[in-house]
Amino acid sequence: EAKAAGRSTWQFYASEMNERIVNRRKIETDLRNALRGGELFLQYQPRYTISRQTVSGAEALVRWQHPTRGLLMPDSFIAIAEETGLIIALSDWVLHNACTAASQWPDDLQVSVNLSPVEFQRGDLVARVRHALEATQLAPGRLELEITETVMLKDSVAALQIMLQLKRLGVRLSMDDFGTGYSALSYLRTYPFDAIKIDRSFIADLQGDAKTTAVAIIESIIGLGRALSMTVTAEGVESASQLSDLARIHCDEAQGYYLGRPHSLEQFERLITSASLARP
Ligand code: C2E
Ligand code: MG
Ligand code: MG
Ligand code: MG
């Protein structure tokens, strides 16, 4: 009897695994089509300079309008794109579109693009970024590349070399989701970051019992950013009280649903040309 149970458990896992493999294959094929067929699009989430209450730029976030599955968010397909290597083509598409969009905005607005750790391991990231800038004629200083800690974890020496080359192109580098990993502090010392994006879990803690601790942590990150001449952005600002806490402790920038959800390009461009741009 135990044997039978063991076998059926095994069969259960095997069929579940098959299903996952088939599912991944399907998404992979679909993603290849999506890259050709205009199913991907970008949304732009505004970033604000807190002291001036003006828009400083936007983060480009990829979405996939799948023909049968509906709207897919990056968390449901980036990992598969990474496993299959399609991330390079996807990211090229994102870079070109985001740089093209930003080249139409006022000169003081930046665009941020998220990079995958895989891009530091495969293909020539520096050449790809240079090409996107040349093709779109965007001033390099207006492109910010968002990098998470995983990049430094994978191969820290190679990552540093690539980041230094990216800096030579003139682009900005920011450390995304700061505070969620293990060695964020030592990375800030070693790698040429221009900006820190405080992970939204710390901002969420501004609401609730852990508030005093959250304020202390955020203040110390802001102090660190100031000492290292880095811009500090708070992610995931969802309320007026979070924004006023951040203003009080002199955080540079804020991004989040309270200030603006990710918008279509048209909506974002309306936002930056409207007279009400000064106030969220
Ligand atoms: P991220 O870079 O940390 O992006 C911020 C995420 O937080 C976005 O989710 C955004 O919509 C969401 N967000 C913004 N404000 C708020 C808020 O006030 N509250 C809450 N709860 N969430 C907020 P999204 O668009 O689903 O992106 C998820 C992740 O997918 C991104 O995290 C980024 O790591 C990745 N991603 C997005 N676009 C790309 C891309 O083009 N390339 C690569 N490699 N990764 C991307
Ligand atoms: Mg990001
Ligand atoms: Mg982030
Ligand atoms: Mg993230």
From TrEMBL:
- Superkingdom of origin: Bacteria
In its UniProt entry, what is this protein called? PAS domain S-box-containing protein/diguanylate cyclase (GGDEF) domain-containing protein
> EAL domain: which residues?
24-276
* Organism (species): Phytopseudomonas argentinensis
